[in-house]
Every structure is written in structure tokens, then in C-alpha cells.
């Protein structure tokens, strides 16, 4: 069977995972890549684990998504992997500190990403790994904004989904989108990642 001996497994590893080459990953199907480790844990904080992306698995999945965006729906089978993939995206985008919150008790945010400079940017991301046809509801976005307003240090709220948003959401939040709220559907998510692909 393809993938045997590659130490496929679920969850984050606190130890160094075995080196996996880009060539090996390219020979695997998308379904087999998803269970592989995408992140390494570099520290613990009250909100969760500070993580770094493992470049080869992350980049290979992104390249597959770029060629076939419908593969995003594969994450609906493993919501935690979608959260890990998004966490890896923030690190590749140049954020200095990326925290993956616990699978339960995340207080309404799955990923917290910080970029430090003259002003610290702190992004809260709620990840929705939905199957095709299932839309993020207005209540999901309202809940995310409630989380955002409860955290005084937060700069921006993001809802990332493999799918799309229910009708009316863009209009409801038009005064916030582009300022303190970003809605990333499947198409926007891939376009966002294309901007920093070369950083990987």
C-alpha cells in the first residue's frame, strides 16, 4: 500500500517527525497526505500550542489545492487537519507567532496569529471545514465577531472555510469587511495563499 513506512498519523507531534521529501509526497494522493503531520510544536501558551509548519507536506497540499480547488472539501473529513493547514499558512505568510488552540474549549478561535513590529497584529481565525454545499451561517460569523470583541488585543477576525458563506453575510458585515473582519471562502483562501507561496 502506498504510504506504508511514512509514519502516517493524526495529531501534532512534539518530537521531530521523520524527514519526508517533496518527491515522496508528490507520489501520494491527497487523501494520504492529509493524515500526515503538518506542524511541529515549538512551545505551549495558555491559549494552546505554538506551532511551525512542516514545509514539504504543507506546500504539497497547497500545490494540489491550487491545481484542483475542489480538494478543499477533503478537509471536511478531518476538521483538525484544516485548522493545522491554516495555522501553517499563517506561518508561511510571515507571522512571528502562530498558536493552534485546543480541539475543544478554543473559546471561538482555532488559530491565533501574531506579527510583531511597531504595532502588533493579532489575528483570530475560526476555521470551518465544510463539505460542498454546506455554507457558513450568519450566526457563525456573528459568533466570531463576538469572540473578536471580547479580546481587546485582537486586530482582526477571520473566518476561513473550505466552502462559502450564506447569502446576506457579505451585506450584513460590509462595514467591517476589509477592516476588522475578513471572510475567506475556498476561492479567497487559495488566492490568499498564492501571495506567499514563494515564502515556503
Automatic annotation (TrEMBL):
GO terms for biological process: DNA restriction-modification system. Residues 79-193 form the Restriction endonuclease type IV Mrr domain. Pfam families: Mrr_cat (PF04471). The keyword Nuclease applies. Keywords: Endonuclease, Hydrolase, Nuclease. GO terms for molecular function: DNA binding; restriction endodeoxyribonuclease activity. Transmembrane segments: none annotated. This is Restriction endonuclease.
Amino acid at each position: 500500500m502506498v504510504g506504508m513506512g511514512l509514519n502516517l498519523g493524526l495529531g501534532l507531534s512534539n518530537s521531530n517527525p521523520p524527514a519526508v521529501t517533496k518527491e515522496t509526497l508528490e507520489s501520494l494522493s491527497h487523501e494520504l497526505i492529509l493524515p500526515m503531520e503538518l506542524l511541529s510544536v515549538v512551545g505551549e501558551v495558555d491559549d494552546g500550542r505554538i506551532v511551525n509548519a512542516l514545509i514539504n507536506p504543507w506546500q504539497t497540499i497547497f500545490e494540489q489545492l491550487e491545481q484542483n480547488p475542489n480538494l478543499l472539501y477533503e478537509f471536511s473529513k478531518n476538521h483538525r487537519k484544516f485548522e493545522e493547514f491554516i495555522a501553517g499558512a499563517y506561518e508561511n505568510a510571515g507571522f512571528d507567532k502562530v498558536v493552534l488552540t485546543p480541539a475543544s474549549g478554543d473559546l471561538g478561535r482555532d488559530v491565533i496569529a501574531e506579527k510583531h513590529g511597531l504595532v502588533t497584529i493579532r489575528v483570530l481565525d475560526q476555521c470551518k471545514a465544510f463539505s460542498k454545499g454546506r455554507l457558513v451561517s450568519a450566526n457563525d460569523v456573528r459568533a466570531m465577531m463576538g469572540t473578536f470583541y471580547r479580546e481587546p488585543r485582537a486586530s482582526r477576525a477571520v473566518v476561513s472555510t473550505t466552502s462559502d458563506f450564506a447569502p446576506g453575510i457579505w451585506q450584513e458585515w460590509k462595514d467591517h469587511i476589509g477592516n476588522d473582519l475578513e471572510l475567506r471562502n475556498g476561492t479567497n483562501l487559495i488566492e490568499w495563499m498564492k501571495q506567499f507561496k514563494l515564502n515556503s
